[in-house]
User: Fold Aminopeptidase N from Paractinoplanes globisporus.
Amino acid sequence: MHRTPFLAAALAAVVLVAGCEDKPATTATTTAPSAAAPAGPVDYSAWAKGKSTPVADPVYPKHGNKGLDVLHYGLDLSWAPPTKTLTGLATLRIRPTADAASIELDFKPYTLDKVTVDDRPVDGATVTAERLVVPVAVTKDKPVTLAVAYHGRPATTPMPSHRSDSEPLGLTITKGGGLWTMQEPYGAFTWYPANDQPSDKALYDISVTVPAGFSAIAAGTPTGVKGTTFTYRSDVPMSSYLQTLAVGKYKKISAKGPNGVPLTYWYRAGTDDKLVPSLRKSPQFLTFLEKRFGPYPFATGGIVIVDSASGMETQQMITMGGKIKKLDAAAFEEDLLHEYSHHWFGDAVTTSNWNDLWLNEGWATYAQYLWEQELYHFSDTALEDYLRTADADLRKRLGPPGHPKAANFAESNVYYCPAAMLKELNDALGDTKFFALARAWVQTQKGTQQDRASFIAFVNKQTGRNFTKLINTWLDSKTTPAS
Assistant:
């Protein structure tokens, strides 16, 4: 997720563009289309790459379920603009991590048409207050297939933040009958049943049917278009907040990035044309990042422009806000660089809980500072002074980055302060060892969920030095640590 303003504003006069009430509870009936699930035994090893170790999130404990590990989401969706109705069949392959009397997931109230578990209809499933409860007992490490058929009008959920670009989270309907979503720290549950927490990474297959003239874009690798049905597959595990969905009258540009990686840019003609030259610079951004952090970690990449004021590092397909009053192309491009850097830090390697958001944003912010430094030629001393000044102010106002407040999600302290810490680590190691550390972190840990303890252990092992005190002090101190 982007931040504003960034360093260039201070050093080079360049500014970087760095809730809905619940519906009544609904109960599943048996009058809707059958929720398809396979006959006979299911070979769950096909989704083994989606295995995670879910943990209860300490910042937003009401979201997610540490007792369930979703291995794979199969989402078959259709969108009808005239009635603003989303119809879905969500098939989840789930590995319970504990015995439980029911299956509970995050889900915004829709009408439940049919619910099955292992192809057997379930009576009494309910969805209320952003929670789906399926009254079927599960056993630890005995996988099940949950299929939920549903329909209804999408509705958003409030964002717990005071950011200037804060908007309601989740699936949003546009004036033109389209859709878009951003869902960090949660909000995937506004369009499909989800274990909506960062520690449960899963594989995805998504198909979206839209009216003629519309396109549908989701995170993952595009796998084809048949008629007006668009399909996507994620065979690299993904946290729910990194999924995306956009529907609209889009134009598509195909390009190639470093090493021939396919890139796709989606924009609305007449609305987003001014952004296209910046989108086309994506190969330059990726080349810069690959030089420092190793190969781009996914099979494809791209950007979709939506009606938002923000930006989001959704996996393989950045969701970029096009709601810009006055375009500053350089600022917009710096923001794109920030979001692309998250594909290494946040997407390939993901924090396991929102206390450690700094682990995503600190790296992405520091990568952006390095990009700005190359563009504007300011010195290391200028960068250090800027970071320390910003750090001191933010710790005073928002607290240390290692313990963000639930009401202040993704505010500036989890960007600037850990970036300042990484600058100290860079200075201590020198560029060669520092970037070797960064590359090793991504390339050996991709597809996993990590936290502060695992990061510190990795740094110490990789460097052969003990940086525990330096990292903990920068994450926990109420004041800026000394040099």
Q: What stands out?
A: Residues 358-376 form the longest helix (19 residues). The chain has ten helices and 23 strands. The first strand starts at residue 26 and ends at 27. Confidence is low (pLDDT under 50) at residues 12-27, 29-38.
